[in-house]
Amino acid sequence: MVEIHVLKTKTCPSCLKVTTVIKKVADGMKGISVKETYLDSGPEGQKLALKYHVMSVPTIVIGGKVAFVGTPSESALRSAIERELRS
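Predicted structure:
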């Protein structure tokens, strides 16, 4: 199982777009889970921001590693997920 973790804020317009892209790609794939955390909503978000050295949102963590900062293309996201599923 590969976890995709989207780190975002409530006021970020790009964060809405990245959620749409991830759901579109993830819907056709097995063995993945998607989690979203708002960095501006309490201690959990602050801990994750420090852990992953988040300087900009959205930040996408795949398999415990920062894979993208910003909104990736569907093909780039799919490739990153497939690489992680194979490893």
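Summary: Residues 8 and 58 are 5 Å apart (CA to CA).
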